[in-house]
Design goal:
It comes from Salirhabdus euzebyi. By secondary structure, this protein is of the alpha+beta class. The protein contains 20 helices and 17 strands. The mean pLDDT is 80.
């Protein structure tokens, strides 16, 4: 980028339009910007920077305050900057937010910021963008530099030189980040850290799961669970399972032997019991036959009722049809009545709408006449606006003429007062330098306490989270332990219910056994000892409910286990966060800090911060007053010189005002004959036009609405008439169908043998009641037949037999069954224990395999994350490593110029020392002093030496950025102050270096008060001040 022209209007100290044509410099690409303090030298840099980016060149200047204080409300603040880039010429025009007069009425309105970007082709301007956002984006895309990069490499403002070399490593990192846009490496570092943390949390969760699984194992009493690690515990568990299986096999073999002995005893018992049961059954059957004989007459009556109900069912279908047809007929009657009522309402509404429609149609001529009247009033309004504007101009010009005459009389009086005011100001501003230094020291301390308070608040917040995590951990652990105990109790109850049900199933099977037939379980044909029912029967529903309860308890325990693992992991992670913040604050304060006492420390820091802020504010107010006096002092110095010049300018302005006033008055006279009533108020006339337009729009809208209402009412009337006629026809047909189905119903009632409809109604019976009655009759007859047959069979079988005694056998069987049940329960518990341990073993295998994979991933990602964030021997992060390579290139280029300017004494190097207290390294600067052979911090350089180092660094940075970014052209460099710190030799060396830069066709602008530069640099931009603002003049000596 190379500057061509810069035009400023009402900008900074420049009230009048000032155009700087840099092409007038010719071959002099090194030029000096000179003038009194406060004249507006830096404002030229501000104007360029504002035109390109909408911001001033320095941090201490707000772009919203760039409007000239000399400007009146009618003066428009604007900057136009024309420059060349890549063999093309562009012009950008930008204006800040400012107030302007309202177009109508009195008062002011705020004009928002504006920006336009043009390309100049063959002398013609072609608009590229006209929105602020679009222009900003286009400039950054064209220059390949954002605002911060531009300030660091193209335009170095006051106070920025020393910062280039004196900033700490962290601040230099932020500068290089913005310049080389290395945010990608920071994102990669963060992504690695996040992935590492995620893997660590997953590993901690798996470790907790391992611990919970191992704790859930029912180890033998002699096993030390605290000694074994996970792998050893898994190995021991497998051995324990094998041993348990072997023990259970021995128990099962012993149980089988006892069961065989019991079967033999049961065979004897079953034979005796069977004979006893047959005698008992014979007695019961005899009694039951007598009971059945008494119910026979009742059953016969039920059979007759059942037959009548079935006949009634066959007639019911006809009755349903009658009811359906009657319901349809009644529905049509009601619908016809509703439609007829609706039709009458619509007919009344249609007549009203039709009458309004014809009335509005006759008003067509009136609407057209109103439309023409509105058109003529608008033409008259435009003429009236022009007339009012000319009248306003006449008043403004007349007022300005009077003000100029008064101003001339006041100029001579001001000259006498100026010298007295200057002497007073010089005495008041003597101590400004000392106060400025104290102000910057307080600002630095204020920032330190701001950082401490911010970190302290963060530590307090994170520690509060940690306390909540600990409380939640305690609650979840208690719930989890309780859930495990409840789950264990429910499983024991389920085992007992399952054992009871198996006994019940054996008793059910025993009841169906017949002597001589083979048992489906053991195959024996003799059944002397059948299983007996217990005191309480266990149903499948009870068992299923208990299983669901057990599943619910298991699910609850698993969910609490997950919560327990998650809260443990989150708590450890939060603890590390708190510890990290404590370490950071310890590093910042050089004192050991703990989260528990952070509130006390923050209170101390806040008191210090408020005290410093108050002192800083007092100094800032004092500095503002002194700087304002300095600025006023500059103005008064030029005031006397400008007075005579202003008198001449006033006469010229008065003559110009007279010419403009005569021209406006002539136009007013001409316009007065074209307007019917020039005295009418423009706004009042506009309101009349608005009223007329509203009247016309209302009439048109009313006419359109009436047309729509008329058509809609007409359609609705026709539709309802058709619907009413249709319903009448349907009613006639429905009545005929209803009479027909009534006849069929009566005929069917008579055919089924009912004497009347009332008898038919009495004979109807609900389907469920019929089914129950029919089933009752059927069951009775089957029961009678079975009972009679069985009784005759048993009478024949028991003719030659006697009742047996089975009480002693029952007692012995009971004792042996109890022993077998105890053995079976022990075996079952052993099996449950083995199943549970095998399940745990399977889960442990899955967890260990998953953990092995995660550990390998965590090892790789964790090491990369540590390396990337600078947790390594060099304390160098990934992004800093990249930035350090850029910095090395910058230092290489910078040292070429520093070597010239310091007569081969100094060379800038990147420090290889490791930062203290965990801070990041890699971007600190040191200087090699070849006179002493020592390497020391750049902060030890004197003011002049520091300026030369900073200037070299800025030039080197521009070279490196241009080399790395193919689209960047850095053909321009502006430097604001700094040369005053150089001695005569150093100044000569710096000028020699700057002269070399001209050979590369680079434009260099320098702001300085140094007399030597005024002598050596031929091309100058002279800034001249006056009470009416500053002006720029180019000179080449």
């Amino acid at each position: 980028m190379r500057a061509i022209t810069l035009t400023m209007s009402a900008f900074g100290p420049y009230k009048e339009k000032q155009t700087i044509d840099f092409t007038q410099l010719g071959d002099e690409s090194l030029f000096l910007i000179t003038g009194p303090t406060g004249a507006g030298k830096t404002t030229i840099f501000d104007a360029m920077c504002f035109a390109l980016y909408g911001k001033a060149s320095g941090d201490d200047r707000d772009h919203d305050t760039l409007r000239s204080h000399f400007a009146s409300v009618d003066d428009h603040t604007e900057v136009s900057f024309q420059f060349s880039l890549h063999q093309k010429v562009f012009e950008i025009v930008r204006s800040p937010k400012q107030e302007k007069r309202k177009a109508r009425g009195d008062g002011y309105t705020e004009q928002p910021p504006q920006a336009e970007l043009y390309e100049i082709i063959h002398g013609e301007k072609h608009l590229l963008y006209a929105k602020v956002k679009e222009v900003n984006e286009a400039i950054e895309d064209m220059l390949q530099l954002d605002y911060e990069q531009f300030r660091k490499m193209v335009m170095i403002p006051q106070g920025e030189f020393r910062r280039l070399i004196s900033e700490n490593s962290k601040e230099r990192e932020e500068i290089l980040q913005k310049i080389f846009r290395t945010y990608f490496y920071e994102r990669v570092t963060k992504q690695l850290a996040d992935e590492s943390k995620k893997l660590q949390q997953q590993l901690e969760r798996l470790t907790n799961q391992e611990e919970q699984e191992i704790k859930a194992i029912q180890w033998p009493e002699d096993y030390d669970i605290e000694v074994a690690d996970t792998k050893q515990a898994r190995k021991d568990l497998q051995l324990y399972i094998t041993r348990e299986i072997e023990e259970m096999k021995k128990q099962e073999d012993a149980h089988h032997v006892k069961k065989q002995a019991l079967n033999k005893l049961q065979d004897q018992y079953y034979l005796a019991k069977e004979l006893q049961n047959q005698f008992s059954e014979h007695d019961q059957l005899k009694e039951k036959l007598e009971q059945l004989a008494t119910k026979q007459e009742e059953i016969n009556i039920d059979k007759k009722k059942l037959q009548k109900a079935k006949d009634a069912d066959r007639v019911e279908g006809y009755e349903i049809q009658v009811n359906q047809r009657k319901q349809e007929f009644n529905g049509l009657q009601q619908a016809g009545k509703d439609k007829e009522e609706n039709l009458q309402k619509v007919l009344v509404y249609f007549e009203e709408v039709e009458k309004k429609f014809h009335t509005a149609k006759e008003e067509e001529q009136e609407r057209e006449s109103l439309k023409e009247s509105v058109r003529k009033m608008k033409e008259e309004h435009e003429k009236l606006k022009i007339y009012v504007e000319l009248k306003r101009q006449e008043n403004v010009l007349a007022t300005s003429h009077n003000e100029q005459v008064t101003s001339l009389k006041q100029l001579e009086q001001k000259g006498q007062e100026t010298e007295q005011q200057l002497e007073k100001m010089e005495k008041e501003t003597e101590g400004i330098q000392q106060i400025t230094e104290q102000f910057y020291e307080l600002s630095a301390r204020e920032k330190e306490f701001e950082q401490l308070l911010k970190k302290g608040a963060q530590l307090k917040q994170e520690n509060t989270k940690l306390v909540r995590f600990r409380q939640l951990f305690k609650q979840i652990k208690e719930k989890y332990d309780t859930a495990l105990e409840a789950e264990k109790a429910q499983k024991l109850e389920l085992q007992q219910l399952e054992q009871s049900q198996r006994h019940e199933q054996a008793a059910v099977l025993a009841k169906t056994l017949i002597e001589g037939d083979a048992c489906p379980v053991c195959g024996s044909s003799h059944h002397p000892y059948k299983a007996q029912f217990g005191r309480e029967t266990v149903t499948d529903k009870q068992l299923e409910e208990k299983r669901q309860h057990v599943e619910a308890y298991e699910k609850n325990a698993e969910e609490l286990q997950k919560q327990y693992v998650d809260i443990t992991s989150d708590g450890r992670s939060q603890g590390k966060t708190v510890k990290h913040l404590e370490e950071e604050l310890t590093d910042l304060t050089n004192t050991s800090l703990h989260a528990d006492n952070i509130e006390l420390k923050m209170s101390e820091w806040k008191q210090e911060y408020e005290s410093i802020s108050k002192m800083k504010q007092q100094m800032e107010d004092q500095l503002k007053q002194l700087r304002k006096k300095q600025e006023d002092q500059k103005t008064w110095k030029q005031h006397v010189v400008e007075l005579r010049k202003q008198v001449q300018e006033k006469y010229t302005e008065l003559q110009s005002l007279n010419e403009k006033l005569i021209k406006v008055q002539s136009q007013l006279e001409q316009m007065g004959g074209e307007i019917q009533d020039p005295s009418i108020d423009v706004h009042v006339f506009a309101e009349k036009i608005t009223e007329k337009e509203k009247e016309y729009r209302d009439k048109i809208e009313n006419w359109n609405n009436l047309q729509q209402q008329f058509e809609k009412a007409k359609d609705q009337k026709n539709s309802l008439q058709v619907e009413v006629q249709s319903i009448k026809e349907q009613l006639i047909k429905a009545e005929e169908i209803l009479n027909q189905v009534k006849k069929e119903f009566n005929r069917e009632v008579e055919a089924k043998g009912f004497s009347s409809v009332a008898e038919y109604e009495q004979s109807k019976m609900e389907e469920q009641l019929q089914s129950e009655l029919e089933q009752s009759v059927k069951t009775f007859e089957e029961h009678l037949h079975v009972t009679k047959s069985r009784y005759e069979f048993l009478t024949k079988e028991l003719q030659s037999k006697e009742r047996p005694e089975v009480k002693n056998i029952e007692e012995e069987i009971k004792q042996r069954n109890e022993q077998l049940s105890a053995d079976a329960k022990a075996i079952q518990q052993k099996q449950i224990k083995i199943d549970r341990h095998e399940t745990i073993a399977g889960r442990l295998d899955v967890i260990m395999d998953e953990k092995k994979v995660l550990e390998q991933s965590y090892f790789d990602i964790g090491e990369l994350a540590k390396l990337a964030r600078g947790d390594n021997q060099l304390r160098l992060s990934f992004e800093r490593y990249v930035l350090s390579s850029f910095l090395d290139e910058i230092l290489f280029q910078a040292n070429i110029r520093l070597d010239q300017m310091t007569d081969h004494r100094y060379q800038l190097v990147r420090s290889d020392q490791i930062a203290k207290r965990g801070a990041q390294s890699g971007l600190d600067l040191e200087v090699i002093d070849f006179y002493t052979g020592q390497q020391r911090s750049v902060k030890t350089l004197s003011g002049g030496e520091g300026f030369k180092a900073a200037l070299s660094l800025a030039l080197g940075m521009a070279d490196v950025v241009q080399a790395h970014s193919g689209g960047v052209e850095l053909d321009t460099l502006f430097i604001d102050e700094g040369f005053g710190t150089l001695d005569e030799v150093s100044l000569e060396q710096a000028l020699h270096c700057l002269s070399d830069l001209q050979k590369g066709n680079r434009m260099l602008g320098v702001i300085s008060h140094v007399p030597k530069l005024k002598e050596e640099i031929r091309a100058k931009l002279n800034i001249e001040t006056s009470s009416a603002g500053s002006k720029v003049r180019i000179s080449i000596s």
